[in-house]
Amino acid sequence: MEIRTTTTSRAPLAALLIGLAFTACNTTPADNWTPLFNGETLEGWKVVGGEAPYTIEEGAIVGTMTAGTPNSFLITEQEYGDFILELDVKLEGETTNSGIQTRSHLDQAANEGRGRVYGRQVEIDPSPRAWTGGVYDEARRGWLYPLDLNEQAKTAYKKEDFNHIRIEAIGNETKTWVNGTPVAYVVDTLDPSGFIGLQVHSIGDEALAGKKVYFKNIRIQTENLQPQDFPAGIYPVNLTPNSLSAYEEQNGYKLLFDGKSNAGWVGAYKDTFPAQGWEIKDGTITVLPADGGESTNGGDIVTTDQYRAFDLSFEFKLTEGANSGVKYFVTLGEHNTGSAIGLEYQILDDKRHPDAKKGKDGNRTLASLYDLIKANKTNRAQRKIGEWNKGRLVVQPDNTVTHYLNGEKVLQYERGSEAYKQLVSESKYKDWDNFGQADSGHILLQDHGNRVSFRNLKIKPL
């Protein structure tokens, strides 16, 4: 039989061919995925760090928790720079733990030659803490983005089920999503490239031996990357000193210290910046040591601007036995001697400074609301003396105030509430009228006669 092609029948065929050609020439990033796991073998991967076994079951990589071995990792033999990674993860149990390493590295000599993985890890956490999608710096700096910084994302994880994880590592920025929910945003200059790894966490409880973690549908993009929109209003952790990312600028943050000058700061009860007692050098602003007394050298410094409701972040570094503080709602109306009056985020070497044992029930310790409320902090949340710590305090328009230490929430209270007034009446501030209840006030860095450095001070009016 002869088949004849008429002009009419050729037109749809031509249109189809043109459409296919157009599609081929305009491949979208969504079509640009490369699988990292073929579903059948572990080709391109290797086990390091520990001895937990990795097997393949029904198209998934399965790691089994094993007693008596350190953290185990299945890592890619290839290293990656900028990428977008997606995979599905399921973890058995509610007291177990796992994670996904990004741009990570191996200390080959550690763990008796078995190697120790270090670098940024995206957390898988089924525990009541619920920090899945947070960012942890494995075997190095600890938590970079605990989910106390984005509490709404804590509900995204599905226990005993597969969870879809998306990780964008583009330039200095790492962003994470869990089941489509945006979770963490970290800006960090360390590790522009490295391997990807799948963790089987060590276990202290032998009852967890045999619990499994499943990884499947592992795919990556490394070219023509198109970042997914990250909604406004999520707190970003920017570890680049004295800088603002584009996201921070778009969300209304501004620097309180430019890393170079005293612009925006003056001495408390003064019109100018102190001529002595403070040093600006190498991107830090440092109160210099004197006699350990309040405001006996350069004196406190305050912002020239005042703030009502705000999100304030700052990094601080203590020397041994040092004492300082970040005060807020400082009005300078008291004209008192010593340190100016205000609510204080305490900065202290708890182990070596005697003030830690004064006050009531530990309410003068690090990150506490000084002399009023003790910070409920974990050992994990505290960095060693001489290392940088990240403080944050948020004052909402409804007067709810929250203190954070290295990303972990350590206390919360309502300014001006009856409970607050009762605390003030029992404190050293009982004789000050309406203490801490001003509508607005300055931010203050305290001179307590000890060497303490600050950097990365930034604020967002709310």
What features would you describe in this structure?
- The protein has 462 residues and is mostly beta strands.
- It has two domains: 30-221, Exo-inulinase, domain 1 (Jelly Rolls, Sandwich); 253-461, Exo-inulinase, domain 1 (Jelly Rolls, Sandwich).
- The chain is built from three helices and 29 strands.
- The chain has helices at residues 7-25, 246-250, 418-425; strands spanning 34-35, 45-48, 54-57, 60-64, 72-76, 83-91, 98-107, 116-124, 135-138, 142-145, 163-170, 173-178, 181-187, 195-200, 212-221, 237-238, 254-255, 265-267, 278-281, 284-287, 301-303, 310-318, 323-330, 343-348, 389-395, 400-405, 408-414, 442-445, 452-461.
- β9 (135-138) and β10 form a beta hairpin.
- It is elongated and about 75 Å long.
- The termini are far apart.
Mind sketching the topology for me?
Elements: H1 7-25, E1 34-35, E2 45-48, E3 54-57, E4 60-64, E5 72-76, E6 83-91, E7 98-107, E8 116-124, E9 135-138, E10 142-145, E11 163-170, E12 173-178, E13 181-187, E14 195-200, E15 212-221, E16 237-238, H2 246-250, E17 254-255, E18 265-267, E19 278-281, E20 284-287, E21 301-303, E22 310-318, E23 323-330, E24 343-348, E25 389-395, E26 400-405, E27 408-414, H3 418-425, E28 442-445, E29 452-461
Parallel strand pairs: 13-16
Antiparallel strand pairs: 1-15, 2-5, 3-4, 4-15, 5-14, 6-11, 6-15, 7-8, 7-14, 8-9, 9-10, 11-12, 12-13, 17-29, 18-21, 19-20, 20-29, 21-28, 22-25, 22-29, 23-24, 23-28, 25-26, 26-27
